[in-house]
Structure formats: C-alpha cells, structure tokens
Amino acid sequence: YYSLLSVEPHATPDEIRKAYRKLALRFHPDKNPDAGETFQKISTAYATLSDPQRRQVYDRFGE
C-alpha cells in the first residue's frame, strides 16, 4: 500500500492524506473513466493506512 500511494513506511498521517488526495484527483472515475479499478485500490490503501490500528496490523502481517 505504501508504494501504491508513493509514501515511505514511516510517513506521517498528513503525508499519507496528501498523497491520497493527489492520486484521488488524478484517478477519480469522473475525471478518468478508465481508472475505476485504480481508484478503488488507492481508496483501500488510504483506508488501511489512515487508521492507526489497521495500519499496525498491515505493517505486521501485510494484506
């Protein structure tokens, strides 16, 4: 998920949010109809990394 959002594993929540917003604008289905699947992957990555508990589980065990 870190590579998908182009952030380091030690990134702060603000860095993760900024990276997500940048990618969400680029791949949003309204602006780029062919990128629906990519947008879903980005959204899943953000949901996992933005929640401290889910991020800790992801860091230990992966997806």
Automatic annotation (TrEMBL):
CDD domains in alphabetical order: DnaJ
Biological-process GO terms, alphabetical: ERAD pathway
SUPFAM superfamilies linked to this entry: Chaperone J-domain
Keyword Ribonucleoprotein: no
Keywords for this protein: Chaperone
GO molecular function: misfolded protein binding; protein-folding chaperone binding
Domain (J): residue spans on this chain: 1-62
One GO CC annotation: endoplasmic reticulum
Record protein name field: J domain-containing protein
Upper classification of the organism: Eukaryota, Haptista, Haptophyta, Prymnesiophyceae, Isochrysidales
